[in-house]
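User: Sequence in, structure out. Go.
Assistant: Echoing your sequence, followed by the C-alpha cells.
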Amino acid sequence: MHIFKIILTLSIITNCIAQVHMDEELTSIMQADTQRDIPVIIVFKQIKSSVAIQNTNFSVQERKVRSTRRAQAAFLADTAKLGLFKNRSMKSMWINNSIIMTLKGSEISALINRDDIESILLDRTVYLNEPVVSEDNEIDEEEVFTYGLIRMGIPELRKKYDITGKGVTVGLLDSGWAEHPDLGDRVKRSRDFVSNKPDNKPNDGHGHGTHCLGTIGGAATSGKSIGVAPDVEFIVGKIYRDDASTEVSKQLEAMQWMADPDGNPDTDDHPRLVSNSWGWKLKEMPDASAFQRAVQTWRELGIVPVFSAGNSGPWRETIGYPGGFPETIAVGATDSDDAIATFSSRGPVLRGGTLLRKPDVSAPGVDVYSGDLKGGYVKMSGTSMSAPHVAGVIALIFQAFPDLSVAAVEDILKSSAVDLGEKGFDYKFGDGRVNALAALEQTLNSGRLVIDNQSSAQGKLTVKIEPGNRHFELANGKNLDRALPQGSYIINIDKFGYKPIVKEINLTALKTTKVSFELEALPASKIHINTPGSENESWVIVHDTPFEILTTSQGKLSQSLPHGQYKISVVRRGYLSQTFEVDFNSDLALEVKLDKAATCLLVNDDPNSDFADYYSAALKANQISHHSESSRASNLAQMLSYERVIWFTGDSEETVLDSSEQNSITSYLKYGGQLLLSGHGIGNDLRDSNFFYEVLGARYKYQRRLFRNIKFEESGLKLKLNGSDSADNQSKPDVLKPFGKNSQSIVQYSFLGSAGILNTFGTGKVAYLGFGLEGIRGADNRAAALQNLFNLLRLTSDEKLKVLQDVHKVDSNLHNILSVAFAKGTQAEKQVLSEKISKTSEKKAFRKLMFELKHRN
C-alpha cells in the first residue's frame, strides 16, 4: 500500500521520529487536533547534483533549482497522482531544498515514513530580539564621528584613503527602512515579506532596520558621521512587522530573494554581503538545517553572511542560530571602552556534540548612535548594533578588492582585529574587536591566492605555504581561496600516493593568482596479509597514512600501497597485536598468527605514580585478566586488542590527553571498544574541546572542593573519596553534566553535581569519571565501583541491535565483526537477542547475528 494511503495514528509519530524529524511543538499541535490546518516547512534530503548539472556553466542559482526539482520530484509526483493537496498553496524553495505549505495533522502523519524527507517544521511565529533603546540621546556635539567609528579607526581611514564603500551593494534583512537624510536614495531595491505594502518604498514602522542601515552606510547630514561606509547602496528585505513579529517561512523566503533579487538566475544582481541583526536563541530552533543550507547557498554565491551573536550573555554557550553556524560571521558587542557588553552572547556553540569557536569577532554595540524611523537619531544597544559595524567594514574591503572570496574576507577581519580579553581567540570577543583601518590596509597589501584542486583521486590534499607556515587540508574537489600579503611564496602540495608538487609564486597586491597542478601517481605494489586460525576478522592499520582501519575478509587482505617505508599493525579483538616495519618496493605477503590477549588493558597516564596498583588490585578482585602499559607506549593497535580499556590520568592536570591519544580513544570507541576513563584533571583541561563534548559526552561545570561522598545512581552504591587505603589525591575533582542525547549521569556527588558520565560513541561506550578511581576509600569499595562501571559499559540487547542497524549499510566489515562478538554470551543473553529480533519487522541488519546465534555453541 502506498505511504500516502496510510493514515498513521499520532501515537506512532513519536516512534517514527528518527525517520523524519519533527519539533515538539508541531507534534503537540497535531495531537491536539488532527484536522487543524498547520503551516509547515518540509525539508527534503539533499541529493548529489547529476554529472550533467555539475559539468555545465549553470549559475549557482540554476544548479540549486535543478537539484531541488530532482529531490522533490517523487513527492510532487505522488501527491499529484493521488490527488492530494489540491488547491493548496505550495512554495518550493531552492535555497534550502524545502517546501512551504499548510497541511492538516493527519496529512502530516502520512508523510513521516517517507525516505526523501529530512524534517517537518512548524512555520511558527517568532519575534525580533529587541535592542535596548537609550533614554539619553545626548552626544558630543564637537565630535564628528560616533564612538564606534572612532574605535574602529574610521577617522584615520577617511584621511588616508578614498574608500567609502562606493560601488558595493549591501543586503539587509530586518524591519525594513524609513526615509532618512543620511540614507538618501541609496536603497535601490526593497521587498516586504510580512505585509502587503508595495516594493521599493520606505516601510519601517519599528525602526530597527533603519538604525542598522545608518550604522552600515549612513552619511553625516546632521554634522555627525554615523555610517562606516557612507557610499554603499542597499537591498532591503522587510522580514519583521512593525510589532517585531514574523514567521520562519518569511525569513527563509527573504534569504532566497536576497540570493536572486530579480528572479533571473543568469543576472548577477545579489549583494556582496548581507547584514542580519536577528537570530534564534540556541534552544528555540528545532532543526537548524533549513537555515544552514540557506547560508551555505549565500556563501556559494560569494555573499558574506554577517549575523548578530545574540543578547543572551553573560553566560557561556548562549550564541544561537544562524550566527552559530560555522558558515556565518557572528558578531559580539563591545562598549565605548572596548569592554565586552554584559548582554553579548558568549561561545562556544555546541551542536550535535561538535564545538564551534564563536563569536567570530566583536564590534561596538552599546549606546550606538544612528538613524531612527522619523528621520532623527537614537541610541540603541545590542549585538544588533554591532553586526552592522562589521558589515560596513566588509563593504570597505570589497570596494578595495572586489574579487575576494568569503573565506578571504573572514581571514582579513579576524587577523586584523584588536585582540581584547584573553590572549588570542576567546569566547567573549572572538578574535577581537574589528579594526576598519587595519582591515583595509591589510586588504590593500594582499593578493588573492586560488589553488585549483581538480583532482578526482580519493583522499585529502595537503597544502603548505611558506613563509608563514600555513597549512590547509582540502577535501576532494575543494579549492583553496585565501588572501595573503603580497610577495613571493613556496607552495608544497602533497597527497598520499602521489609525487609531491612544489610551486613558486609571486603574489601581487589586489590581484588574483591561480595555481593549477596535475598529480602523478607514485609506483605501487600490493601487500597481502593472511591471519589464519580464527572465525573473527582482523584489522590492519597502516600507520601515518590516510587509510581508515582496514579489515580482512575471510582472514585475508590485499591492499595496493605506494612504495615506501611503513609501520603496519595487525590486530584482532581478544588477541595481541603484531606490528611490522616494512621497506615496501614490491609485492609482499605476510602470514600473521596472533596470540590470545588478556581481557582488559590498563593504561597508566601518570607513570611517576604508583596508582596502577589500585587498579590492578580491583581487577584481580573481580577476576579480570589485564595487561598494563604506560600511555607513552600505548597506541590504537594495542587498544583494539582488548574488549575493555581502563585509562587513568592520576594527578595530571595539563595536557592529560594529547591529540594523538584522543584520536586513538576515538577510533577505539568507533570500533566497538569499552573504555573507562578516570582522572580529576581531565575536565578542567579538555573542557573546551570537541573530544570532551562529542566523545566523552560531558560538559564541565567546575572543580568541587567539598563533599567527597559519591553514589552510583543505578545500583545505589555509596562510597567516599580520600582517606585511608586510597591514593588520597582527590582535592578538587571535576563536577560534570551530561551532554548530548547519548549521554547520561551515572555517579553523583553528594549535594548535587555529576561525578561520572556514560556516553555511547560510535559502536562503543565510555564511562568517564571526574575523579580518580584510585581515590576511592577502601580496596573492596574500589573493586565494587569497578564492577559497577563494567556492568554499565556492557551493551544491552537493545543497544546491540541499534548498533547493528547503524553500521549495517555504513561498514559491512565492522557489522560482521560486531555480529560475531554480540553472539557470544550466556544462553540467557542469546535468548533475549533472538526474541527481540523475532519481533522486528525489518531483519536485514540482523541476519549475520541470527546465523551466529543459531550455529555458535
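User: And one key feature?
Assistant: The CA atoms of residues 348 and 357 lie 5 Å apart.
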